[in-house]
Amino acid sequence: ATSIVWLRRDLRLTDQPAFRAAAREGTVVPVFVLDDETPGDRKLGGASRWWLHRSLESLAADLEEKGSKLILRQGRVDHVIPQLCEELGATRVHGVHHYEPWWKEAEDRIADQVEICLHDGNYLEPPGAVTTGSGDPYKIFTPFWKALKERMPPSEISPRPSSLDAPDNWPESEKLDEWDLLPTNPNWAGAMEEEWEPGEAGAVKRLEAFQDDASHYEGQRNCPSVEGTSKLSPHLHWGEISPARVYNRVKDSGGSVGTFLSELGWRDYGQNVIDQFPDYADKPYRDGWDKFEWRDFRSSTVRDEFDAWKKGKTGYPIVDAGMRQLWAIGWVHNRVRMIVASFLIKHLLIDWREGEQWFWDTLVDADYGSNGTNWQWVAGTGVDSNMFVRIMAPLSQSEKFDAADYIRQWVPELADLSDADIHDPPADKRPDDYPEKIIEHKAARERALEAYRAMKG
Ligand code: FAD
């Protein structure tokens, strides 16, 4: 029998249950469909497209080594996949479960036409599997993680298939280069090419490099000036490595590895939330927030300030460093993601959904579940505690988490300032080419609290 492996964010061979199942059944045709229609306004952002191109290149090479081939097609998956089944006389489609609402709907539409087997493997446990005593899914992280942890460690990972049987005739494939996933004019991906190695081999290298640091995670993870975190997020997002593999590799590292493992738990948690609340990344969860008076984009001042945030020109060095890191490499340190998000929402009083969208376009790990849950968490509009009134002070955060070298790296015009001055450059030391603060912290704080009180009536 011939089966199709329908690939999405599961671009690996090791511990990839769809490949495993298909390989057992006979001939395997791996297919990636570039579908910009099904996700609606959640089509892949620019940074994601760059990553995807490189990751597909890597997977295609890995498949070739196994005597197989990656078939590329463009169009609506619920048309392309059944069509391809017919073309090949394939009896079954294997895939890995995805929980973005548009994928769940597409899976159903495909299942109406051909036999499709979806496997678990992109999360420690599939969303909905870990439930409260009364059988409901969890809404809050802490009890969710406590229950998930009891089911850990995950089972041992399964090796890559030793070979993949090829069909007598391969179906036609489109050419990756013709998909225009890479930026051209201008090519903004230079620093990304240097920073990342998309694909399974790159993911394994990151994991191995991090493995020695896993036990010191707690002490380092909040300091953006050191590489204290794994930088596995884009690899995990694209499914180039399974979370079970990461978990099992580091679990016995000792020290504070437990904190790191709980971050993998946060990743699972985000999927659990979107599985329960499919429009979570697009709509505040808590009541009342539709009445909140975010500043109005019809005002050019607001648009200019949003632009200054995006470009890293707010006059707050830690915020600017983060936003420039995002633009350069498509990734930002977690502590700094919290600071820049809080700054947009509370200091600039701009709707968190604008920030979520910008991250969606610019992050290489842009993930519907993780991005949505984290933005709502910072905003205080989500299922967990209401954090709106906890307004982060960017300047003290910068000092507390020792961001001086991080700022030097990403805001080079401040590089000569001392550790004492760099977090909040005094007027007489502020270089001419570095902007003044677009708003004072105290005034911003008061404005935000006032808007919050107004909403609460
Ligand atoms: P590590 O610290 O090494 O953690 C290991 C893994 O755990 C990560 O690779 C990631 O898969 C997962 N993880 C860690 N922290 C979180 C978290 N808070 N929520 C969910 N998963 C987590 N992460 C994304 O993967 N995609 C996003 O689109 C995304 N958007 C975010 C938006 C905001 C406003 C904030 C505050 C955080 C966001 N995060 C997102 C979470 C987090 O910042 C990144 O996962 C983390 O910085 C990735 O770096 P790392 O791989 O070195 O993480």
Category from helices, strands and their pairing: mainly alpha
Write down the overall geometry.
Answer: globular
Major sheet: 5 strands, parallel
Give average pLDDT, whole number.
Answer: 97
Question: Can you describe what's shown?
Answer:
By secondary structure, the chain is mainly alpha-helical. The chain folds into three domains: 2-121, HUPs (Rossmann fold, 3-Layer(aba) Sandwich); 123-154 and 199-276, Serine Threonine Protein Phosphatase 5, Tetratricopeptide repeat, CATH 1.25.40; 289-456, DNA Cyclobutane Dipyrimidine Photolyase, subunit A, domain 3, CATH 1.10.579. It is built from 20 helices and five strands. The protein has helices at 17-25, 46-65, 77-88, 101-111, 141-150, 190-195, 200-211, 217-220, 233-237, 243-250, 257-276, 300-311, 317-329, 334-347, 352-362, 368-379, 394-400, 404-410, 419-422, 441-456; strands at 2-7, 27-34, 71-74, 92-96, 116-119. A five-stranded parallel beta sheet has the order 3-2-1-4-5, with helices on both faces. Helix 4 (101-111) links the parallel strand 4 (92-96) and strand 5. Helix 11 (257-276) packs across helix 16. The structure holds flavin-adenine dinucleotide (FAD). Flavin-adenine dinucleotide (FAD) binds at residues 221, 229-233, 236-237, 263-264, 266-267, 270, 334, 337-338, 341, 359, 363, 365-367, 370-371, 374-375, 378.
